Structure formats: structure tokens, C-alpha cells
Amino acid sequence: MILSGKEILKNVESGDIIIEPFNKDNVNPNSYNLSLSNELLVYENEVLDMKVPNPAKKITIPEEGLLLEPNKLYLGRTNEFTKTEKFVPMLEGRSSTGRLGLFIHVTAGFGDIGFAGYWTLEIFCVQPIRIYPDTQICQIYYHDIHGDYDLYSSGKYQNNKGIQPSLMYKDFEK
Q1: pLDDT for 97
Q2: Which residues contact 77 (CB under 8 A, 6 or more apart)?
Q3: Fewer CB within 10 Å, N side or C side of the chain?
Q4: Matching NCBIfam families, A to Z (predicted)?
Q5: 14 annotated as belonging to a binding site for a ligand
Q6: What is the pLDDT of residue 37?
Q7: DSSP label at 36?
Q8: Choice among 7, 39, 85, 122 that is catalytic
Q9: Other Cβ atoms within 10 Å of 21 Cβ, number
Q10: Is 121 annotated as a binding residue?
Q11: Over the stretch 121-151, which tens digit does the pLDDT of each residue have?
């Protein structure tokens, strides 16, 4: 089952869900709005390769906004650090951003129980759009988990501090 907004708030207050910084005004009926940091990464190569690290450059989103180009992948991150060892976190774009043709985290919204860090956002637009730092751009929601489970322990993305480009190449090193 998905936690209600009141349950999210209750679990933040008890420490079973960590969202830092936390703003009670961002609690929705069954989710919590997360905001966009002021940095993006864009891959430098036209062709990406799963087996090698792909170079990326950092772009700062100024207060007056940044115009995104269609058909280009941008990686952003949330301003908020999240952690929970009791629930399965899930991330989705907000309907308001989707209705502008701005897609946030389309392919990788399923979080692992025990994940701790900032969420890297896969950002894609269908037409040019201006974005702004600190915009409430996506929402996190939580599922109960039943049965025995192990906490997320992968070293690839756990406890990250910034935007994480794909580390899929590490899967080929095994």
C-alpha cells in the first residue's frame, strides 16, 4: 500500500523517513514534492557507451532560468536528501511538469529500501522549456514492504552527494 501524506508526515516525525531539508507544505495527499537543485549534467558525447564511463559537463541553472533543448538528456538532482529503511521509495514527475512536456525520472523511479542519498533525475523535454532552480519538480511516495528483506547496499549510488551519471559500466567489470 502507498503511504498517505499524513503517514509520510508521521514517519518523518518519528525518523523512519528522512527528507532533508523538510518542508511540511510540500506534503501532498499521498506524496511529498521534491525540488530541483541548481545544477545539471549533460553528456559530452553524441553516442553513449554502456561499457565505459561517459564524460559529462556540469551546467548551472541561473535564477533567471535555463532553456532546455528537446531530444536531449539532462541529469539533475533533488535538493533533498532522502533515506528510509522501512519503506520502498518511489519517484515520479509531477503532473504539472508533465503537462508542459517535461519528463522527470521516466525510467528509473523505483527506489530500493535502504537507499540514502539525493535522487538523480533523468530530465527530457519534447519542446523547448525554461526551467528554474528550486522548482518543485517531482514527487516521492512510499510503499509498505512485506516479508523479509535486505537493505540496499550497492556502492554505485548509495550516499551520493551530487548528480550521478550512469555507472552501468561497473556491471560489466564483474
Answers
A1: 93
A2: 36, 37, 39, 118, 119, 120, 121, 162, 163, 164
A3: C
A4: dCTP_deam
A5: no
A6: 98
A7: B
A8: 122
A9: 9
A10: yes
A11: 999 999 999 999 999 999 999 999 888 888 8
The answer, yes or no, to whether residue 112 has pLDDT greater than 90, is: no
pTM for the model: 0.92
144 annotated as ligand-binding: no
| pLDDT above 90 (res 84) | yes
Angle at the Cα of 50 from the Cα atoms of 120 and 138, rounded to 5 degrees: 20
Separation CA 23–CA 67 (nearest Å): 28
Q: Is 92 one of the catalytic residues?
A: no
In contact, 89 and 139? CB cutoff 8 Å: no
Is it the case that residue 154 has pLDDT exceeding 90?
A: no
**CB of 37 within 8 A of CB of 79?**
yes
Q: Region of 105 please: left (phi>0), alpha (psi -120 to 50) or beta.
A: left
Note the pLDDT of residue 4.
98
Give CA–CA dist 60/174, Å, rounded. 35
pLDDT given for residue 80 in this prediction: 98
